[in-house]
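Let's practice the habit of predicting before peeking. Look at the sequence and jot down your guess about where helices and strands might fall. Then scroll down.
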Amino acid sequence: MSCGDPHETECGEVLDHLYEFLDNEMAEGDCAKLRVHFEECSPCLKQYGLEQAIKALIKRSCGCDDTPTDLRSKVLARIDSIRAGQRSGEQVVVAVETTVELHVESARPAPRPGGAGEAEPAGRSGAPVEAGAPAE
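Done guessing? Here is the structure:
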């Protein structure tokens, strides 16, 4: 992604390191570069705000559970693999499957489908749902 305006730090580089920034895992000098970029670039600032809100929602909803070490390792390895593919110019295809559904209002797992009188959850009808497409 790029806003089309010239910046000292490119939009792609900023977005590649966004979670490191959000997690305070960057050197202060690098953090300062990202802060300057956010002041100049409203699309990246908007993406930062969105990712920050998602991270806060996840923390509120799942903050009491520790992440299993093996899961964390697998996720980090997959992120590194995707980043390496993006840097080399390869087309990167990411498939995500989730089995946990949350009710945002209550931050509790959704009822399992198949109970009496329950409808099938959106996106589970067998037809693929495009990323960003509204749920049926």
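How did you do? DSSP finds five helices and two strands in the chain.
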